Amino acid sequence: MNNGYLAIVLHAHLPYVHHPEHDSFFEENWLFEAISECYLPLLAMLERLRYDRVAYRLTLSLSPTLMAMLGNPLLQNRFLRYLRGRVELAEREVERTRRLPQFHALAQHYLQLFQDNLYDYQQRYHCDLLAAFQRHHSGGRLELITTAATHGYLPLLNVNPASVRNQIGVGVASFQAQFGFTPRGFWLPECGYYPGLEQTLKAQGIDYFFLESHALLAADRRPQAGVYAPVDCGGIAAFGRDPAASHQVWSAESGYPGDGDYREYYRDIGFDLPLEYIAPYILDGETRINTGIKYYRITGGKQPKQVYQPELAKLKVQRHAEDFVASRQRQIDALAAEMQQPPIVVAPYDAELFGHWWFEGPLWLEQVLRLSAGEQSGVQTVSCADYLQLPLPRQPAVPAASSWGEHGYSEFWLNESNDWIYPLLHKAAAEMEKLASDLRGLQVSDLQRRALNQAARSLLLAQASDWPFIMKAGTTIDYARKRITDHLARFNYLHDAIRKNRIDERYLTALEIMDDIFPDIDFRTYAA
């Protein structure tokens, strides 16, 4: 008998990286690694569950920027080139390790993995992963939802309400254009929330969204059920993240992915082997990058890294999945004894954790879903939309401003490393709104319409939360800075060209090719 429910939510997002002006581009590898290590393994997991008729429920949020890249023919062809290169490298590794038995079996494993990825992507899915996810949604086991257009951090864009309205509206419209229906749920970028945001979501037909735990616990009226039941935010439901379920997976100290038998992410032959050997498989022949071929496990403490053993890792996967489900069952039983309605434990994670950062993650998730579907599990997986169908009361509340970033608020996206961008973003947003308002009801030429829509695209792309995040994290800072300055420069050029009626069609066409996203965008939605 089930005393409560478990909602596992995966949020799949990458920033928009599209550079047709270059033959190859380093940051495009973000997408290629995610497809190879995360999205294809997740689809393989869903196929196995479907074949075995496992009664699971899982929610997947797909960001509009990710959807645009997954559906882009140029990037699809470049990913095929990427996979073929990995197959060739793995073939060389099989030969190189022939007299190194501790590595040879792993080299063969990687060769098979890359060959399977290439076959699945090209032959099974015909390069269309979105259609593959939609088939599982149509099968009733996977719920698809979405997020803001370019994953803009909404609490810091709210200086201009039109920016928030269009981040949400364009995001929902992109999802509708891709899948043919309105998503019921919405992932707030970085779980960033401020009171009143829920009404903008509701206006787009959204039924529910997710928040960090303290958003509910510090609400204007503390919910009696804590984070284990949604609150009613004026006709739209807010679900809070469960700290315990998150800690078991996310914790750097005690989370499952840090176990010594799992594969080490940071030891890769792209950094370990001679440069002349791997040069054909990196972009410029000089800059070392991850190849996806990793021979070591995390090990433990300060010991030298030991060779990865997939069978040992699989045993740990099973043990950790059993521990997670048992922990949820104990948690739900304790909550059910205190609550007047069945509790729901909401466990949201970045999808890219599963397979990319945590190689065994998709296998762990599969076992969790299988165990939860067992007759004796005491835990039933649901989507939040399923839970809302139950005839249960919902306590009214206004959540507190919050995010799931470090320290729980906005400081990761607003600090000394990135605060310079916001006056520029707010100025551009105000100018976009004034342009749209001034032209409301007026006849514009086709060239003007294209320029206005491209200006709106440039503004949305400049507002992505990824770039200030990267600046604070200190990773590819130069690229993040360039993305913001380039998109703002494009916006400023278009704004001036439109105002002066001096639009260069050749340059506009080049911008449309480079920023090949949101084909149905309408600048008029920015009007006040």
TrEMBL record:
UniProt domain Glycoside hydrolase family 57 N-terminal: residue ranges: 7-263
UniProt keyword Cell wall biogenesis/degradation, yes or no: no
UniProt xrefs under CDD domains: GH57N_AmyC_like
Listed InterPro entries: 57_glycoside_trans_central, BE_C, Branching_enz_MT3115-like, Glyco_hydro/deAcase_b/a-brl, Glyco_hydro_38_N_sf, Glyco_hydro_57/38_cen_sf, Glyco_hydro_57_N
Pfam families per UniProt: BE_C, Glyco_hydro_57
Highest rank taxon of the organism: Bacteria
Record bears the keyword Zinc-finger: no
Keyword annotations from UniProtKB, A to Z: Carbohydrate metabolism
Domain 1,4-alpha-glucan branching enzyme C-terminal: 425-526
Family: Belongs to the glycosyl hydrolase 57 family.
Protein's UniProt name: DUF1957 domain-containing protein
Organism: Methylomonas aurea
